[in-house]
Amino acid sequence: MKKIRFKILILGLVAGVSLQSCKKQLDLPSLNSLDASLALTKKAGIESALNSVYSILKREAFYGRDLFSVTDAMADIAFANNRSARLISENRNTANITTAVWSGAYGGINEINLTLAALPLVTDATPADVTRLDGELKFMRAFLLFELVRNYSYIPTFVVPSQDRGGVVINLVGFNNPTDAVAYMPARATIADCYAQVMSDLYSSISQLSSSNRGRNYASKHAGLALGARVNLYAGNWAKADSFATAAITLTGGIGAMTNTGNYVAGWRNADHPEGIFQVYFATLAENLGVNTSLAATHTTLKTPGGINNFWETRQGQGDLMPNAFLLGQLGITGHNFNSNLTSSSTQPTTANPAGTPPPTLTYGSDIRNRLFEWGVNAGGHYVECTKWFGKAGAANWDHTVLFRWPELYLTRAEARYHMLNEPDAMLDLNVIRTARIVGFAGPATLSGQALLNEILRQRMLEFAFEGHRFYDIKRYGLDIVKANPVINMPATSFRLLPALPNNEVVGNPNMVQNFNY
């Protein structure tokens, strides 16, 4: 039974066991709950299996919350305020992402493998259908494997050799019965082999999909190029990162476009972010994660952004994770009077004190990105909160989650060109971002050397605050995690930089090696 249990964890094979033990609110019916010979002989069955894989990204452990919020809590830009006791351990860097990322991603990969094997035998799909479906499935396999290797392993640009246990499992064969699953005793591949497999699937996907395909809710050539740019940046393959980013920027018929200082804030209030290339699509209100763990509820207490009386309104979300003083300073926000716990001393109006203490007036610098940060309501203290994820799909906690935006393409190319000693063109790309985000930007003197790299990474921090990039930027450069509140100075060599693999993957499989010190 122990062997069967760990096989179910790694591959998500037997839904009769796994679905009874853990109902997943956001999942479509899983392929694994059906006999593949019945489910995958028609195009409709293939489409359902593909949608099931996309739906994995909606889970709390993925982009419902954790791969944005947990990773930013671990980085140096956020403060967990203990309103609901969530994200405290992650903010103190004593916890990392959960094993649900491992089990969810491998369950999705198994569904993809079964579906790819069945695809050539589908009787009612045109050759164009088969090409498109194959491309979307391989994009998602690449995406899930990349999430596994960038989280559970070191990133190629920074490895601690004495603690390195390799990459993750590369699995390209689907299992739909427990006997075959129990017989499968995988070992971890090398980090290099994992990245090579991600790129192999991406090259295939990009060759099969059209520029915009079915739009930003699905895989497309544009999304594949954007993912390729990110993967190669992490791998330190600077020339390829430059090439993929350039191809995505210049792609004819792609998805989205850069915003500017005039429409940046409005872009975050649209149903679909205009800069989005690929997003997690929440089709119905029933799919939202609610007032405890959705992205909106995690980051703000507000019902609506930008209202003059919001400071006194009734709390809607938890507002567990706030920008810390360091990030607010970098964004150019001043005027707050909060104490060491980042709480404003202003008070709520009461019968005894009908006027209350008015909120301090925040002063915003010229960086338009800071307009997405404002006072929350009084729920055990006012905090300055992030309002990026704000129910723009039409209801509270119901918000599409953008995974690739246009600014990443320019910042990726700037960083790659810096490392390729092409500093003039790196400056050009850096200034695309600064011009689009800083009102009246005229540009300082040309930066070079370490100062140029520092500014590229700073712009990544400001651009993608609470979008889950900062921790990985710290990780791939081997930087210490330093925070004033809570007081943290975690060296880059700390074993806590990587999470533990699920214990049930290691117990019973002599070929599987646990991460260092777990």
Please, could you describe this protein's structure?
The protein is mainly α. Among the domains are: 216-281 and 404-446, Serine Threonine Protein Phosphatase 5, Tetratricopeptide repeat, CATH 1.25.40.10; 285-399, no CATH class. 44% of the residues lie in helices and 7% in strands. The protein has a two-stranded antiparallel sheet with strand order 1-3. The chain has a two-stranded antiparallel sheet with strand order 2-8. A two-stranded antiparallel sheet has the order 4-5. Helix 4 runs parallel beside helix 9 (127-152) and helix 18 packs antiparallel against helix 20 (449-463). It is globular, with a radius of gyration of 23 Å.
Measured distance between first and last alpha carbons: 23 Å
Helix run count: 22
Q: What overall form do the CA principal axes indicate?
A: globular
Computed over alpha carbons, the radius of gyration is 23 Å
